[in-house]
Amino acid sequence: MAHIDYFFTTISPFSYLAGTGLEDVAGKHGATVTYKPVDLMALFGRTGGVAPKDRHEARRAYRMQEMRRQAAKLSMPINLQPAHWPTNPAPSAYAIIAAQDAGGGDLGGLVHGLLRACWAEEKDVADDGVIREALAAAGFDPNLADSGLLSGAETYAANLEEAVKRNVFGAPSYVVGEEVFWGQDRLEDLDLHLAGRI
User: Phi then psi for 197, rounded to 5 degrees?
Assistant: First the structure.
């Protein structure tokens, strides 16, 4: 059975624009998924990337155009300049890690719910109430927002180290063995890879 390691952050617009495409591809192929939230700004620093605010104006302008175009193409609502971005992604990452450890809910739904909160609903994914709401909506105990914080912090740090070692440099990234698929627009390639076509 194939396995996908999914590296993302809850404040990435392109992780948001992936929607539930990963879950659809995994389901089609009977693949398992491990969700690995990472500190994207730290990952950029470790792999030669630059935070959006520090990029050349041409790159910032293109990013905005691409976000708008991709959202329109997918018929997904998006606020190109959300009220709570950037924000600290660690609290929501810890909640995802705790939910994954606990099991019993819809982890893909939780991840997408938090991304949607940031990019379409003007909510702060660092806010405890927003995190609890997303946990409950995905079928998890909202109290997971308060549990396993030390373990969550350790896993979050380990995810960063693993991302660097596995040649991940941006989000979303889908990793199958040695194959890295970067960007929501590479879900089709992930699908083809799992089908043995590429």
Answer: -95, -25
